[in-house]
Amino acid sequence: KNDSANECVRDKGPLPRGTYTIGPAFFHPRTRAWTMRLMPYPENQMCGRGAFMIHGESSSHPGEASDGCIILDLPYRKIIAASSDKILVVED
């Protein structure tokens, strides 16, 4: 699941390595409150993947909430949303 060798595997691999801008928190109909979009820098190699977000875990299917997104508990999402640092760097 978190193996960077699988970053090009759609709906299974982790977020592709690169730099992202973290968008403002919003309510998403599926991932709920305090969801934030991750916008990749143009130079990222995205492998045809996209629509990555930071959001919470699924209460009905724990461990299955992510298709490559970053899953964090609510207190951490609130800290990120309140931070002035909106750059995320994903490395191997």
TrEMBL record:
It comes from the Bacteria. InterPro entries: Tlde1_dom. It holds the Pfam family Tlde1_dom. Residues 2-74 form the Tlde1 domain. This is DUF2778 domain-containing protein. It comes from Salmonella enterica subsp. enterica serovar Java. The lineage of its organism: Bacteria, Pseudomonadati, Pseudomonadota, Gammaproteobacteria, Enterobacterales.
